[in-house]
Specification:
The protein has a single domain, classed as 3-Layer(aba) Sandwich (Lysozyme-like). The protein is 31% helix and 14% strand. The protein is globular.
Length: 203
């Protein structure tokens, strides 16, 4: 009987590992490569940056996993980054995909402390970057994508990855870019966590 209980408990643990923290599709599941460098992220984090990719929408599991692999290849092989750039990616299928994740600093140069292009102050480079898999300049995110982002951030607070009073900003508030797109930016400006004045977190 004791052996059966041990096997059952082990199975539950394995299920949680496969599922991933906060239900995200893990890097292993979508076929991601290991980073060439790791910079650990002190937690809990109090800043979340929302941005978007410049890629077509993916609406199926297969298409979104392909998009993740292609994005990582571009970031690492073409741009020379140590890993895929953002913490998490959200597909049109409503699923969240692990990038750098909750534990590691994203590989985007402007978001790292030692990069000449850094736009954030050294005290606020501890950020979670959530990127929507779509080119959202004129279109809006799907309801599934918005719900997935909100669920991820809620889970982040409950799991101790985010502070209870974290702030959300749009990518365009920090550097000269249209990201996260006009309609998505309009949406996040209605969120209670949105920070309008970012002067305190920029160099």
């Amino acid at each position: 009987m004791f052996r059966v209980l041990i096997i059952f408990a082990t199975s539950l643990c394995l299920c949680e590992l496969v599922k991933g923290d906060c239900g995200v599709v893990t890097k292993q599941q979508w076929g991601g490569l290991q980073p060439t460098h790791v910079q650990y992220l002190p937690r809990p984090v109090d800043l979340v940056i929302i941005q978007h990719t410049v890629t077509p929408m993916c609406t199926t599991d297969t298409a979104c996993m392909d998009r993740m692999r292609n994005t990582q290849d571009y970031h690492m092989d073409t741009l020379g980054w140590w890993d895929i750039g953002s913490s998490f990616y959200v597909g049109g299928n409503g699923k969240v995909y692990e990038g750098a994740g909750w534990l590691h600093v994203g590989a985007q140069p402007w978001a790292t402390t030692n990069a000449p292009l850094a736009s954030l102050s050294s005290e606020t480079t501890k950020v979670i970057i959530v990127e929507i898999l779509y080119y959202l300049v004129n279109d809006g995110p799907t309801t599934q994508q918005l719900n997935a982002v909100k669920a991820l951030l809620k889970c982040g607070v409950e799991s101790g990855h985010l502070t209870s009073n974290y702030h959300v900003v749009g990518h365009r508030q920090l550097i000269a870019t249209v990201s996260p797109g006009r309609n998505l930016y309009r949406e996040i400006r209605t969120w209670p966590e949105w920070m309008e004045d970012v002067s305190s977190i920029k160099n």
